[in-house]
Amino acid sequence: MVEVRPLWIDGKPFTAISVQLPKTTLLAVANDTGYIMCGALDVALLNNKLRDRGIIAGRAVGVRTIDQLLEAPLESVTFAAEQLGISRGMKGKDALLLMK
Description:
Pfam family, one: DUF1805
CATH topology: Hypothetical protein Ta1206 fold
Radius of gyration: 12 Å
Strand content: 35-45%
Helix content: 10-25%
Largest sheet: 6 strands, mixed
Number of helices: 4
CATH superfamily: Hypothetical protein YunC
CATH class: Alpha Beta
Structural class: alpha+beta
Order of helices and strands: EEEEHEHEHH
């Protein structure tokens, strides 16, 4: 099952996406600038092979719901996210609010 729903954080619009797969669920919250995602996100790939795209993203591990993704500390972030002030250890929702 795939669920896509609007999500508002401090009055700013985002899209929450949940994809249930066998034995795992993919989670992401995005806006037009960037996104945070569960542990399935390969930040190293984005930073190395896709660096020229300047993808703004962060990864949180051990999360099973969108609410957990928003509250979890980011385990890794892309170089482009760092340029916006997003850093490892930052809560997911705080990182999203910097994605303007």
